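Researcher: Batch entry, complex prediction.
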Amino acid sequence: MKNRLKVLRAERDWTQAQLADAVDVSRQTINAIETGKFDPSLPLAFRFARLFGLRIEEIFHDPTLDKDGNGLGTKIRKDTSV
Amino acid sequence: MAYVMSSLLYLQTMIGDIMNQLKPPENGYEARTRKNVIQLFRWTVAWGATCALVAFGPKFLWNKAVVFTLLAIGLNLCVGIRTILINKKYLDDLDDLQRKVQLNSFAITVGVAIIAAVPYSVMDSYHIIPFHADVAHLVALIGLTYAASNLYGTRRYR
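Model: Structure tokens for the complex:
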């Protein structure tokens, strides 16, 4: 899972510690998410979305999706639509 | 004069607000975790003390009186149960990543304990090891494995 957390944080001139306090996690967790070592749970992703005033998919995105945002479901539909 | 006083008051309030915003909240994640760790440490020490009481009390303190031994065991169990509940609260209050680190540590620790305990017991049964297999060895192995795996997990996500 890729994310724009570091960019969004930098735009607001926040430190990792300030962001961590805002969403009630440790600074280590923010660092691990920003560097892609750890994917947050859905409740934590919602907290980020509320904090930045964005939708979850505007912060996190699945690199396996194609340019149109189509994923595994589209492939399965194509394979079975004979 | 009144204008100066009200300006100073306003300035003081503004500085106070800025300082409060910069200061981590006292009920924030870090403060809460620190409080839970201290509480868990205190109860673990208390449990260790009651273990020592159960182990050495009958011989050195009350001359093997059964009533006192049972009372000491009861106290040990009560403190042990409280320690488990405090540990559960500590885990519940952790964030996603710390909980994952703890889960990995527990998985490795339980695995190592089970895998090591069976051959250790067999070696004792067939007198392959020159000493009696003691449960304290297993407890020490569990403690060391948990500490090592926890340290590894913490460093991995640093």
